[in-house]
Design brief:
Helix content: under 10%
Number of strands: 39
Radius of gyration: 52 Å
Strand content: 35-45%
Largest sheet: 14 strands, mixed
Low-confidence stretches: 521-527
Mean pLDDT: 84
Length: 651
């Protein structure tokens, strides 16, 4: 004997008849919202027995042998319409909706990182989601997306559990804002519209009935068969849907990326079935392409010579010390070299560019001291003007870099991966020959052996119906009348009853910009690049000989000996007063020069290399009362004064 009980919230279940329920219809909808509509004979103005938001469960009890309870529905009362007919019957009708309705009301959010105004890295759940990955950025197939969305609903307090969910197919990323959990589920089901989402209402958690969400693909569905004879079935009609059966699928994935300012375009084609058939389904999906940026640094170096006494060593020294380049190679040589401040002995000198840390090369300031011996000769090379040895000290930037252009990637956003197997999955769904139809089975009790996630075949009708394996989409159980009405075929709720569904699935998505940035706190310095370091800093104290700085020689060409030295070193001058030590520009000037002609003192004009006149004016003439003629001249110490030229006897 079969009886039905209704359970209110946590109360004990009560027989429908004892509750005053006069009619009860249970509607199960694949990929939709289940409902329980029951009517209670009651004063239509009385307070409802099951008010809004009441949780109800319908339990089927089989009292044969060992009484067995099976929960066939769990939902929440959403509507309580009243009705009355004059002075006759009065009733309150209740509509309880299954858990899919709760998923339609629950927003879907994922975790994202951000930085507060105080600079603190934080995370938040917000209604921006990337269908195709979880909060950690892990790639999910369509079944994984459904599982993740349902788990989020559970965390929000929706009273469901998660059962067996088919893996589904890897689909392109789909970034969406402000959607519900149910929207995410439907978006995934559109790719495989022959999959069935259904609820196991007999599932229990801690002794309470908690509906478990299941998604089943046709390969795992239970096959059932019923006979259409002896009045057991009425209204049977099934139509094969050859019109929406596709011979092949072709999917083109395309994306445009940026590679260091250069546009890169790519295409990948995936096919299944007769992909060149005129009635094929051709789809295009835009994916997010690669984005890459680089920084580069040109570096030019020169290796230090292994032997500083070699020609290579002398060539480098001549670059650093200009006075050495004025000497012929045979007139100077390297005596010794010592290396000072550098601690790593890098092999090369940086000439141009810089060596920032991101090049993975190194640099340091390095000091060298080189002793050279030299001879400075006259222009005709026959006379030695100066000779000796000098220490040359120079500082360079030493490095282990080489001459090349170094490049480093500063930004890398990987392209959205191309889904694999999607064409085959779509072909399996859309190449199936569906049978859209309906049949009502009559009996004393409702046949709960027919339900969702089943493949129905019927004998006693057309021969093809016996093996049609039509997907069950809707089942309505008339609890009081014992009738079960079954609809099969394509899922109209997913628009799978026409090819619009597959095209809408392709058009309705938006590829994701945020998929790889969910853990970026926005204010991070992850793209910061170290600035230039290790730039050239050549400095030299080249020990230029004083011969080349202060003196020149006057030579007698006939004898080859050095006859005079002209010293133009201001530091060697004994000035009459310290104020006369101001810098002067020496140049040829026309001056009056006194000279001796025998015993006579005379003066003439001459061109002289000298500075401008300075100091106190000195009178020229014979001093008053002098007994001798005197002229202004310098003594042997170079001190100016009046010198006696000739003594006169005065009469």
């Amino acid at each position: 004997m079969i009886s039905y009980l209704i359970k209110k919230n946590t109360d004990a279940p009560v027989l429908l008849s004892a509750s005053g329920v006069t009619s009860c219809l249970l509607n199960l909808r694949a990929n939709g919202v289940d409902s329980l509509v029951f009517t209670q004979a009651n004063d239509w103005v009385a307070a409802p027995t099951w008010p809004f938001a009441t949780k109800v469960a319908l339990i089927r009890r089989d009292s044969e042998a060992i009484p067995t309870d099976r929960c066939v529905f769990v939902g929440t009362v959403e509507m309580t319409p009243r009705q009355a007919e004059g002075g006759g019957p009065q009733a309150i009708t209740y509509t309880a909706l299954g858990p899919s309705y709760a998923l339609q009301l629950c927003d879907y959010s994922q975790e994202w990182a951000y930085t507060t105004g105080a600079g603190v890295a934080s995370t938040i759940y917000e209604p921006t989601v990337v269908l195709g990955e979880d909060n950690n950025g892990t790639r999910l197939a369509s079944g994984g997306v459904i599982n993740h969305a349902a788990a989020y609903a559970v965390s929000r307090g929706v009273g469901i559990d998660i059962g067996a969910i088919a893996a589904g197919v890897t689909v392109p990323f789909d970034e969406r804002n402000n959607i519900k959990v149910w929207d995410a589920i439907v978006a995934m089901l559109r790719y495989t519209p022959d999959y069935v989402l259904w609820w196991d209402y007999d599932h229990q958690v801690s002794g309470a009935y908690v509906p478990a969400l299941n998604v089943t693909d046709p390969a795992a569905m239970t096959a059932v068969s019923r006979a259409l004879v002896n009045g057991a079935a009425t209204g049977a009609s099934f139509t094969p849907r050859y019109d929406i059966r596709v011979p092949g699928i072709m999917i083109i994935y395309r994306w445009t990326g940026d590679w260091d300012g250069r546009t890169v375009k790519s295409r990948v084609t995936e096919t299944a079935g007769a992909s060149t058939d005129a009635r094929r389904v051709a789809l295009v999906y835009d994916l997010d392409g690669v984005h890459a940026s680089f920084i580069q640094q040109a570096v030019e170096v020169e290796d230090y010579p292994s032997d500083w006494t070699s020609s290579a060593g002398k060539t480098l020294l001549a670059k650093l010390c200009p006075w050495l380049s004025q000497l012929t190679s045979g007139d100077w040589s390297v005596v010794s070299m010592s290396r000072g401040t550098g601690s790593h002995n890098y092999p090369a000198r940086l000439i141009n560019g810089s060596v920032p840390a991101w090049t993975m090369k190194h640099s340091e300031s390095d000091t060298f001291t080189v002793r050279v011996s030299y001879k400075i000769k006259s222009t005709d090379t026959t006379h030695v003007l100066d000779e000796g040895s000098k220490d040359i000290t120079f500082t360079c930037t030493s490095t282990d870099a080489v001459t090349r252009t170094y490049r480093k990637m500063t930004e890398w956003v990987e392209p959205e991966p191309v889904p694999t197997g999607m064409a085959a999955a779509l072909f399996a769904s859309w190449n199936r020959l569906h049978y859209d139809g309906q049949v009502t089975f009559n009996g004393q009790e409702c046949d709960f052996g027919i339900g969702l996630a089943q493949l129905l075949s019927c004998t006693g009708g057309l021969a093809e119906w016996a093996t049609m394996a039509a997907v069950v989409q809707d089942v309505t159980y008339d609890i009081g009348g014992g009738k079960v009405t079954v609809k099969t075929g394509t899922c109209g709720r997913l628009e799978a009853d026409n090819l619009m569904a597959v095209y809408r699935a392709a058009r309705g998505r938006r590829y994701s910009y945020l998929r790889l940035g969910r853990d970026n706190a926005d204010a991070s310095d992850g793209n910061q690049i170290d600035g230039a370091s290790g730039t050239p800093n050549d400095r030299v104290a080249d020990g230029t000989p004083s011969c080349l700085q202060k003196r020149f020689a006057v030579e007698a060409a006939d004898s080859g000996s050095r006859t005079h030295l002209v010293d133009i070193n201001p530091a060697a001058i004994a000035f009459a007063t310290s104020g006369n030590a101001a810098a002067q520009t020496l140049q040829l000037r026309e001056m009056v020069i006194p000279y001796m002609d025998g015993s006579a003192c005379k003066a003439k004009l001459a061109q002289v290399l000298c500075g401008a006149v300075y100091g106190t004016e000195i009178a020229v003439g014979m001093p008053s009362g002098a007994a001798a003629y005197k002229v202004l001249a310098c003594n042997s110490s170079g001190v100016p004064g009046w010198q006696t030229v000739v003594t006169l006897t005065l009469s």
